[in-house]
Amino acid sequence: MAALTPIQIKPGKLFIGGKWVEATSGDSFPSINPATGEVLAHLAEAADHDADAAVRAARQAFQSGPWAEMSAADRAKILWKIGDLVDKHNEELGTLETLDNGKPIFESRQVDIPMVAEVFRYYAGWATKIHGETLPVRGPFLNYTLREPLGVIAAIVPWNFPLLLASWKIAPALAAGNTAVLKPAPWTSLTALRLAEIAAEAGLPDGSLNVVTGSTPALGEALVRHPQVAKIAFTGATRTGQEIARHAAGTLKQVTLELGGKSPNIVFADADLDAAVRGAANGIFYGKGEVCAAGSRLFVESKIHGAFVEKLLVERAKKTQPADPLDPKTRFGALVSEKQMQSVLSYIEKGTAEGAKLLAGGARAHVGDGKGCFIQPTIFDAVRGGMTIAREEIFGPVLAVISFDSPDDAIRQANDTPYGLAAAVWTRDIAKAHRVARQLDAGTVWINTYNNYDPAAPFGGYKMSGYGRELGMHALESYTQVKSVWVNLKES
């Protein structure tokens, strides 16, 4: 493995009310490097009492702390400084992300962490532009609206893009004047804890951002049930999102859910096939396939199917081999954990058992001493719509290739899924591209590209991929509430 850039991983504590504190239980759990199996650090095991303390600290900061009295312009300055500090600590944060998640250091330092900084700066710009309206109501009245923050936001984020998805929630929440409690995934908590320090260094008042870590669902459930939490912002598995929606109903708190996907990537015969091959590979193998919007179902028009899959895509997959995530040349790293690796391998077994044709990969890969959680990039052909690998989210580098005969056939098969997060269309016929894009059940549709994101572009799903939108101005709608104010102008 490549030499590790010297960084300091602090003993596990919780960040509550601007201070590092021990978990009430005194218990801890390990954070493990999935590329080596080594323990990186022991993290504090928070429980109900710790969740309550974090929420109360956030509530106090919202009601009576400096954050509540701060002008939007001053909030903007702090958010911008957080972005600058994230850029300043890019090497450290990128290394932590790769150690924790197993993704290539290239992705962490060149893609994820720069976008984190960009997200904070983007919402710094929005802080001074959240406003109400005056409305032409009947009678001698002045009516105006105020767009106000909700209160305490509980942000629960997954392990595939740990700091990036945290920024998608924390930045707009703070820009709107809310305070937050961040619960990172147990496997990837290190950058969330470091973010707490960076935010404090930027001048974020105590209690405005709290970070609690834990290895069991109980911690997240405590936040979801807490009566002083105004909103849950969650990214993760659909099943977990359903549980959150049920529990949140008890206190009628607002919820946004960015959940699973089984995204269709549609290649027509008239596409630029070289570009489509690159897009198909990027769609499923970027991030080791541990991407909610991964193009895990590849639909190829029948007349080009054989050449596209056998000669182009399979050849590219075989050249994409897992390697040391800390090596800057690596483009395919380790899966996040042993548990996730075994889950992906079980899906590969199901694909074979159900009759799909394995063209590439299909097994664990051995890198270094062989202790890491590496899997070969895997491609199945001759996949039918009813097969498990075509229906369920695998969340790994496993591609299911399906044939289609016409645009209507492609749309029908693409929409035959409970999910609706993302999709892509590859064609030189721009009219056809727009027609198909409109008919796809997906919150994001890429045309002749894949996996593009920007802080200004909204992201979210249809159907069982969730509800609400992250990023862009649309995200701010879910971190604010509207108050209508009536003023009697009639002379007394």
Structure overview:
Helix 13 links the parallel strand 17 and strand 18 (398-404). The chain is of the alpha/beta class and 492 residues long. 54% of the residues are buried. The longest helix is centred in the first third of the chain and has 22 residues, at 105-126. It contains 16 helices and 24 strands. It has two domains: 14-259 and 466-483, 3-Layer(aba) Sandwich (Aldehyde Dehydrogenase, Chain A, domain 1); 264-455, Aldehyde Dehydrogenase, Chain A, domain 2. Helix 3 (72-88) runs antiparallel to helix 5 (105-126), helix 3 (72-88) crosses helix 7 and helix 5 runs parallel beside helix 6 (162-175). It is globular and about 80 Å long. It has a seven-stranded mixed β-sheet with strand order 14-17-18-13-12-20-21, with helices on both faces. Strands 9-8-7-10-11-23 form a six-stranded mixed β-sheet, with helices on both faces. Strands 5-6-24 form a three-stranded antiparallel β-sheet, with no helix packed on it.
